[in-house]
Amino acid sequence: MKKAKKEAAAYKRPKVINARVIGIVISVLAVMGFVIFMGHYTLSAEFFKVDKYGVEGNSHLKDSEIFDLMDVKGKNILSVNTEIVARRLEASPWIKTSYVRKELPSSILVRVTEKSPAAMLNDGRAMYLIDDSGVKLDAIEKPMPGIPVINIEEKHKRAYTEAVRLVNVINKTGELSGKTIEISGMRPEDISLTLNGLLILMGFGDYEKKLASYFSLKDEIAGRNIAIEYIDLRFANRLIVKPVKKEMKWVKGAI
Predict the structure, then answer these.
(1) What is the pLDDT of residues 127-137, one digit of tens each?
(2) Are 161 and 110 members of one domain?
(3) Within a 10 A sphere around the Cβ of 126, how many other Cβ atoms?
(4) Which terminus of the chain has fewer CB atoms gathered within 10 Å of its CB, N or C?
């Protein structure tokens, strides 16, 4: 008897699943299926595919070129990541900053700030527009008036860097606006500036100070009415004028 009772106690009836629990589980699965279906439908719906765009702030790049850079045509606007699109735009050498906004159901609006050409680079093989960091913006077929020209190959890195620094100083100086300017030199200490045909030896660094020295005495130099071979600004606190004749003429002036 005791053995039979123990066996009976050890035996357990299988649990009966409550019909209510089954109903809840089925409902949850149905909702999940509906959400998945609607999500898939929404992401693939024609209604949300990007087919319109607006662009502001561009002058060099065309609207269509910017839209191509965005790479969003035909994509579902809900899946478009605006930060990724902005990074694509700013990968262009012409675009400095960009702002991207989505407009439901299918439009993308973009505002860009383009870089301005600081100079032209003539490397002996081709000519390019460059920005104020020396980065190439675009190849050009012929020089553009009013923009300084750097006649230095990029392989001369130190000289090229100094030439870009000099260009930025020149561009901030209103007195040189519209002048024909060329910068040359294979070493930083050899940097020279040709200003409307006049050779000015600049050397390395202190470009603001050196140009200020030139501006303070240029009228006096012009008033002497002599043919000048070059002006030397390489030495601290003095400006040297070399006439075409053999005699060396010094023009003193505190900087």
Answers:
(1) 999 999 999 99
(2) no
(3) 11
(4) N
Nearest to 119 by CA among 140, 98, 96, 89: 140
Q: DSSP assignment of 166-231, as one string?
A: HHHHHHH-GGGTT--EEEE-SSGGG-EEEETTEEEE--SS-HHHHHHHHHHHHHHHHHT---EEEE
Of residues 93, 50, 43, 45, the one with CA closest to residue 70: 50
What pLDDT score was predicted for residue 250?
47
Token pair of 22, please?
A: 């089954």
Residue pLDDT, tens place only, 64-85: 999 999 999 888 999 899 999 9
- The H or E element that residue 36 is part of is helix 19-44
196: left (phi over 0), alpha (psi -120 to 50) or beta: left
Question: Is the Cβ–Cβ distance between 119 and 148 less than 8 Å?
Answer: yes
**Mean predicted confidence (pLDDT) in 205-227:** 81
Distances, alpha carbon 13 to alpha carbons 6, 9, 20, in Å: 15, 10, 20
d(CA 34, CA 3): 55
* CATH code for position 134: 3.40.50
Contact present, 124 and 153 (Cβ < 8 Å): yes
Q: Which of 60, 85, 114 is the last residue of a domain?
A: 114
* Nearest partner of 159 among 98, 202, 219, judged by Cα: 202
Final residue before a domain boundary, out of 93, 114, 135? 114
3-state class (DSSP) for residue 13:
coil
Residue 246 has pLDDT above 70, yes or no: no
